[in-house]
From TrEMBL:
Residues 35-54 bind DNA. Residues 12-72 form the HTH tetR-type domain. The lineage of its organism: Bacteria, Pseudomonadati, Pseudomonadota, Alphaproteobacteria, Rhodobacterales. It comes from the Bacteria. Keywords: DNA-binding. This is TetR family transcriptional regulator C-terminal domain-containing protein. InterPro entries: Homeodomain-like_sf (IPR009057), HTH-type_TetR-like_transc_reg (IPR050109), HTH_TetR (IPR001647), Tet_transcr_reg_TetR-rel_C_sf (IPR036271), Tscrpt_reg_YcdC_C (IPR013573). It holds the Pfam family TetR_C_3. It comes from Aliisedimentitalea scapharcae.
Amino acid sequence: MAQDRAPTRIQKKNRAAILEAALDVFSANGFRGSTVDQIANAAGLSKPNLLYYFPSKEAIFTELLSQLLDTWLDPLRELDAAGDPMEEILAYVQRKLQLSRDFPRESRLYANEIVQGAPRMIEVLSTDLRTLVDEKVTVLETWMREGKIARTHPKHLLFSVWSLTQHYADFDVQVRALMADEDPFDGAADFLEGLYRRMLTPL
C-alpha cells in the first residue's frame, strides 16, 4: 500500500484484520494451500479491498514472516554471557516453551515455511539467524571450556531446545489427543528443566 499520508484508524484496523486472518489460514494450510480469497473471507473483507492493502498472497506472507522473525529470535538473543550458565540455558528453554504456548499459529507458520524449503526465508536463515546462533555457540563453548556446563555439541543443544519446545505447538492436535484432559504445558516446564539440568550438570 503506497500512500504519502499516515494510515487512518480504519486502514490500520483492516491491515491488522488481514494479517490476523492470514495467520490462521497460512498456519492451517501452508503457503501453497492458502489463497487470497480464503484470507479475504476470514478477514471479512472483499478480495479487491484486501488487494488494496497487500498486492499479493506473497506480500501478506512476507509481512507475517518479517513480524515473526524478531519474536522467534528474541528468546535466544536474551541468553546472557554474563549470567549463570545453567540458569541462562534453563531460562531460554522456558522462554521457547512459553513462545509455543502463546504463539502456536506463528510456530506452525514458521514450520510450514521451513518444510517447504524456506523459499521466502533462506536469506535470513543464512544471515541473521546464522550470525545469532554462531554468537551464542561461542558463549556455550566458553561455558563448556570453563567447566560450568557439561560438554556437548552446542548447535545440537540448540536444535534440541527448538524441537522439544516447538513440538508442543507444531503437533498440538497430537499432543492434546494423547494428554487427554491434562494441559500438556502444565508438566512440560518441569520435565524440560529436569532433562536439561541433568544433561548439562558437569560430572
